[in-house]
Specification:
Helix content is 35%, strand content 23%. By secondary structure, the protein is α/β, with parallel strands linked by helices. The chain folds into two domains: 13-60, no CATH class; 73-163, Anticodon-binding domain (Rossmann fold), CATH 3.40.50.800. The strands form three sheets. A five-stranded mixed β-sheet has the order 6-5-7-8-9, sandwiched between helices. The protein is elongated and about 85 Å long.
Length: 167
């Protein structure tokens, strides 16, 4: 398997094991009516989980699809005056199964946006006075920009398919 830097990685393996069956006490009766210790074959379609996750992180360069992103959305209050509304929005999102957090720092909104970009957070949920008064949020999607104002329910509907784990 080649990674995003075109390096080859060994992932899938088949191993012949003569030792483990003996340690497990595995036996079978052969055609000669004698007990024999079998040879065990191990297979791993993608190799160790650690190697697979490392390649996956590198392949996506940390920019995971929404369903796989560790933090799917970050609530960004424009100032501390809107912290209570930000927490209300966060609770609604968490209760709906969205992995999100709040940036309650006293930094400017531009800095908060930059942090989200560096951390590759898929959605920024901005809350300020207008959003609080109208009971909505402003949504900004990574790589796509402004998605406009909407209710939390509308945001959940918009992201529903992308939040589902691909099976």
């Amino acid at each position: 398997m080649k990674d995003s830097l075109s390096r080859d990685w060994q992932c899938g393996t088949i191993q012949v094991d003569f030792n483990l069956p003996q340690r497990l006490g595995a036996e079978y009766v052969g055609k000669d009516n004698q007990k024999h210790i079998p040879v065990m074959l191990h297979r791993a379609a993608v190799g160790s989980i650690e190697r697979f996750l490392g390649i996956l992180i590198e392949e996506f360069m940390g920019d995971f699809p929404l369903w796989l992103a560790p933090v799917q959305a970050r609530v960004l209050p424009i100032s501390e005056k809107f912290a209570e509304y930000a927490h209300k929005v966060e609770r609604e999102l968490v209760n709906a199964g969205v992995r999100c957090d709040i940036d309650e720092s006293n930094e400017k909104l531009g800095y908060k946006f930059r942090q989200c970009e560096l951390q590759k957070v898929p959605y920024k949920i901005i809350v300020g006075e207008k959003e609080m008064n109208e009971g909505v949020v402003s949504v900004n999607k990574r790589k796509e920009g402004d998605k406009g104002q909407m209710t939390v329910a509308e945001f959940l509907a918009m992201t529903e398919d992308d939040r589902k784990v691909v099976r």
